[in-house]
Specification:
The structure is a single chain. The protein is an alpha+beta fold and 263 residues long. The chain folds into 3 domains: 51 residues; 109 residues, Outer membrane lipoprotein wza fold like; 87 residues, wza like domain (wza like fold). 32% of the residues lie in helices and 20% in strands. Strand 6 and strand 7 form a beta hairpin. Helix 1 packs antiparallel against helix 8. The radius of gyration is 28 Å and the shape is elongated. The model has no long low-confidence stretch (mean pLDDT 80). Keywords: Membrane, Signal, Sugar transport, Transmembrane, Transmembrane helix, Transport. This is Sugar transporter. It comes from Siansivirga zeaxanthinifaciens CC-SAMT-1.
Length: 263
């Protein structure tokens, strides 16, 4: 009986020790063994964001004579900022058909366009329908920052970063980082596309993540971090927690042994 009990205790201790969260589980962008270098070349570049339905756009038209373009900037968004709240009331919303309603020009189809392409489109239509080349038009199109949402073993909520290019490490830092119990080896990115949503996976514990096409996030991305199996099982996340679990379990098994022996 003693031998069997010792075997069970040894097995339980081995399993619990193996369940501790190690540095390999929580350190970001670890270099591959044997491939360490002073620097490395990264080839992945962020793909330009393409406008989706319900996006808010800030469109500002400038010319030599500001009075000529005042009708296109009725709310003077450039001076009031391009916050999401401001654009909700004063910007241009992409409707379910992928169109925006622009003064004088009417409906413009912008679904799937980049902001640079929309700038060209608006300028060309203005020159075709309303202005001459001598007006020297300058059109800018902006999104109200880069919006994304985080869920799971990370600070939960919707976040905005006022940059055109944001990588997933920056996004996670803005959200408050992934908890120690979060699975950094399989972070899910749920991304919007014109034909629907797709789920992508990225391992943030390897330096190869920086070359992934999903290393840079896009507007309206959902970043989902699942818990590690260790947390799901309810075992210790640190050696001290694991030791505490082992001592508690050992006490129970010892008490059970003496109880059976006394019968």
């Amino acid at each position: 009986m003693v031998k069997q009990l010792s075997l069970v205790i040894s097995l339980v201790i081995s399993i619990l020790c193996a369940s501790c969260i190690t540095n390999k589980d929580i350190v970001y962008l670890q270099e591959n063994t044997g491939k360490a270098a002073d620097s490395m070349q990264l080839y992945a570049l962020p793909k330009p964001y393409r406008v989706q339905t319900n996006d808010q756009l800030s469109i500002n038209v400038k010319a030599i004579d500001p009075e000529l373009v005042s009708i296109f900037n009725p709310t003077n968004i450039s001076s009031s900022g391009t916050s999401e709240q401001t654009l909700y009331f004063n910007g241009y919303t992409v409707d379910a058909h992928g169109d925006i309603e622009f003064p004088i020009l009417g409906k413009l189809h912008v679904l799937g366009y980049t902001t640079d392409e929309i700038e060209v489109l608006v300028k060309e239509e203005l020159l075709k329908q309303y202005f001459k080349e001598t007006a020297q038009l300058y059109v800018t199109v902006k999104l109200p920052g880069l919006n994304y949402t985080t869920l799971g073993e990370i600070g939960t909520g919707t976040h905005v970063i006022y940059k055109d290019r944001v990588n997933i490490i920056e996004a996670i830092a803005q959200a408050g980082d992934i908890s120690k119990a979060g699975n950094r080896k399989d972070v899910l990115i749920i991304r919007q596309y014109p034909d629907g949503q797709r789920i992508h996976h990225i391992d943030l514990t390897t330096i190869d993540a920086m070359a992934s096409e999903f290393y840079y996030i896009q507007n309206n991305d959902l970043i989902l971090v699942k818990p590690l199996v260790r947390k799901t099982l309810g075992v210790g996340q640190t050696p001290l927690q694991t030791l505490s679990t082992i001592v508690s379990l050992g006490s129970v098994l010892t008490g059970l042994y003496f109880l059976i022996k006394g019968l």
